[in-house]
Write a structure and sequence with these properties.
The chain is built from 5 helices and no strands. It has 112 residues and is an all-alpha fold. It has 2 domains: 58 residues, Four Helix Bundle (Hemerythrin (Met), subunit A); 47 residues, no CATH class. Helix 2 crosses helix 3. It is elongated, with a radius of gyration of 20 Å. It comes from Asparagus officinalis (Garden asparagus).
Protein backbone atom coordinates (compact mmCIF):
# COMPACT_ATOMS: atom_id res chain seq x y z
CA UNK A 1 0.00 0.00 0.00
CA UNK A 2 1.28 3.45 -0.93
CA UNK A 3 1.79 6.11 1.74
CA UNK A 4 -1.09 8.65 1.49
CA UNK A 5 1.14 11.38 2.95
CA UNK A 6 3.37 11.20 -0.14
CA UNK A 7 0.36 11.63 -2.45
CA UNK A 8 -1.04 14.53 -0.44
CA UNK A 9 2.36 16.21 -0.21
CA UNK A 10 2.69 16.00 -4.00
CA UNK A 11 -0.76 17.60 -4.31
CA UNK A 12 0.33 20.37 -1.93
CA UNK A 13 3.57 20.85 -3.87
CA UNK A 14 1.60 21.28 -7.10
CA UNK A 15 -0.86 23.67 -5.42
CA UNK A 16 2.01 25.82 -4.14
CA UNK A 17 3.59 25.92 -7.59
CA UNK A 18 0.30 26.96 -9.21
CA UNK A 19 0.02 29.65 -6.52
CA UNK A 20 3.32 31.20 -7.71
CA UNK A 21 5.59 29.80 -5.02
CA UNK A 22 8.88 28.74 -6.55
CA UNK A 23 9.92 25.08 -6.63
CA UNK A 24 12.59 25.50 -3.94
CA UNK A 25 10.24 27.23 -1.46
CA UNK A 26 7.42 24.80 -2.29
CA UNK A 27 9.66 21.84 -1.55
CA UNK A 28 10.87 23.45 1.68
CA UNK A 29 7.26 23.90 2.87
CA UNK A 30 6.22 20.37 1.86
CA UNK A 31 9.30 18.77 3.43
CA UNK A 32 8.74 20.64 6.69
CA UNK A 33 5.10 19.57 6.90
CA UNK A 34 5.87 15.99 5.86
CA UNK A 35 8.53 15.71 8.56
CA UNK A 36 6.13 16.98 11.25
CA UNK A 37 3.35 14.66 10.07
CA UNK A 38 5.59 11.59 10.06
CA UNK A 39 6.96 12.57 13.48
CA UNK A 40 3.40 12.62 14.82
CA UNK A 41 3.37 16.35 15.55
CA UNK A 42 0.50 17.07 13.13
CA UNK A 43 -2.35 14.62 13.51
CA UNK A 44 -5.37 16.41 12.03
CA UNK A 45 -6.23 18.37 8.94
CA UNK A 46 -6.75 21.49 11.07
CA UNK A 47 -3.26 21.15 12.60
CA UNK A 48 -1.71 20.65 9.17
CA UNK A 49 -3.53 23.70 7.81
CA UNK A 50 -2.39 25.76 10.81
CA UNK A 51 1.21 24.61 10.33
CA UNK A 52 1.03 25.44 6.61
CA UNK A 53 -0.16 28.97 7.39
CA UNK A 54 2.61 29.43 9.94
CA UNK A 55 5.24 28.12 7.55
CA UNK A 56 4.17 30.48 4.74
CA UNK A 57 3.88 33.43 7.14
CA UNK A 58 7.36 32.73 8.52
CA UNK A 59 8.78 32.69 5.00
CA UNK A 60 7.05 35.95 4.08
CA UNK A 61 8.02 37.82 7.24
CA UNK A 62 11.59 36.61 7.71
CA UNK A 63 14.07 39.22 6.64
CA UNK A 64 16.50 38.02 4.06
CA UNK A 65 19.93 39.35 3.28
CA UNK A 66 20.33 42.70 1.56
CA UNK A 67 16.67 43.68 1.54
CA UNK A 68 17.37 47.40 1.46
CA UNK A 69 17.79 49.05 -1.96
CA UNK A 70 21.18 50.67 -2.46
CA UNK A 71 22.10 53.56 -4.69
CA UNK A 72 24.58 52.80 -7.42
CA UNK A 73 23.92 49.08 -7.40
CA UNK A 74 25.09 47.53 -10.64
CA UNK A 75 22.64 44.65 -10.74
CA UNK A 76 18.98 44.96 -11.52
CA UNK A 77 16.86 45.12 -8.40
CA UNK A 78 13.50 43.39 -8.15
CA UNK A 79 10.82 44.81 -5.90
CA UNK A 80 7.77 42.68 -5.23
CA UNK A 81 4.57 44.50 -4.34
CA UNK A 82 1.90 42.32 -2.79
CA UNK A 83 -1.70 43.28 -2.09
CA UNK A 84 -5.34 42.63 -2.75
CA UNK A 85 -7.03 43.74 -5.95
CA UNK A 86 -7.95 47.39 -5.69
CA UNK A 87 -5.51 47.94 -2.83
CA UNK A 88 -3.49 50.66 -4.56
CA UNK A 89 -0.38 48.75 -5.62
CA UNK A 90 -0.03 50.48 -8.98
CA UNK A 91 -0.81 53.89 -7.52
CA UNK A 92 1.87 53.40 -4.90
CA UNK A 93 4.38 52.67 -7.65
CA UNK A 94 3.73 55.23 -10.34
CA UNK A 95 1.91 58.03 -8.60
CA UNK A 96 -1.21 57.75 -10.75
CA UNK A 97 -3.14 59.88 -8.25
CA UNK A 98 -0.29 62.18 -7.32
CA UNK A 99 1.02 59.70 -4.72
CA UNK A 100 3.75 57.48 -6.04
CA UNK A 101 5.21 56.63 -2.67
CA UNK A 102 7.93 54.33 -4.01
CA UNK A 103 8.76 56.65 -6.89
CA UNK A 104 9.15 59.53 -4.42
CA UNK A 105 11.40 57.47 -2.14
CA UNK A 106 13.72 56.48 -4.97
CA UNK A 107 13.85 59.99 -6.40
CA UNK A 108 14.82 61.31 -2.96
CA UNK A 109 17.50 58.61 -2.64
CA UNK A 110 18.91 59.73 -5.99
CA UNK A 111 19.12 63.37 -4.83
CA UNK A 112 21.19 62.50 -1.74
Amino acid sequence: MQNPILYKSFDLFQALLVSDFGPRISMKIVDSLRYDILAGKLKSGAKIKEALKKCVLDLLTSKGKKTEPHRGIRKTAVIIVVGANGGGKTTSLDGGDGGGDLLYIFLKMDEG
